[in-house]
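Can't paste images in this forum, so I'm doing it all in text. The chain is below; anyone willing to post the predicted C-alpha cells underneath?
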Amino acid sequence: MPKIILVPTSHIAKESIQRVKEAIDKEKPDLVAVEMDINRFMAMRKGEASSNLEIIKTLGVTTFLVYFIFKSIQKWLGKKVNIFPGSEMMQAVKIAEKKGLKIAFIDRDIRETFLRIKEISRREKLKLVWFVVKGLTLGFVLPGKKHKIDLSKVPSKDLINQAMKLLRKEFPELYRALVEERDTYMSKMLMQLSKQFKTIVAVVGAGHYDGLIKRLSMKN
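Text version of the structure:
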C-alpha cells in the first residue's frame, strides 16, 4: 500500500530545513514532493523575480498591494532569522537530487492562484490591508490563549489552527483561494502520484497540513 508522509513546515524557520532532511533520511522515499509549481521553482533557482510593474498589470493595483504586503512581511521575517523564504522547499529538492530521487511539484500554478486572488472582492482586499497594517502597528491578536512565537521553529499545531480559523472567518474568499483550493489540488496530485510511487515524502506549509490529512483520509 502506498505511503504518503506529510512534512509540515514554516517557510522561514530553520527547524523546517532540519525536518525535511530528517524525514527524507528516515523514510527513504521513492519520491519527494514539494509545495511549489515548476515555474516558481525555476524562478527561485535562477534567482529571477517579476517586476512590480509586470505584476501590477496582471493583478491590478489593489491585488498587488495585498501581494506586496505579504511578500514584504515574509522577507522581513526571513531576514530576522537569516532564512530565505521557501528555503525548506529548495532544500528538499536539493537533497532529492543528491540522492537521485524523483521530484514532483504538486502546487497549483502560482499564476492561477494570483488570478484567483484578483477575483476576491475589493472590500475583502481592503479589509485585509487594514488588518495587516493594524497588526504591524498594534500587534496581531489570535483567538484563544496567547502563544510565544519563535520564528526559528515551525509554529505549534494549536497556533496554526487558530490562524487558519481567523483567516477562514474574517477573509473567507482569500481562505478559499489560498488554502482550500490548493489543498484540493495538492491532494489530487498526491493521490495520482501514489499510484506510481510506493513512498512519498511531501513537504508542505503547516497551514495545509490538516486540509491534506482530511482529503487524503489519513490519520492525524
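The chain has a mean pLDDT of 81. Residues 3-215 form one domain.
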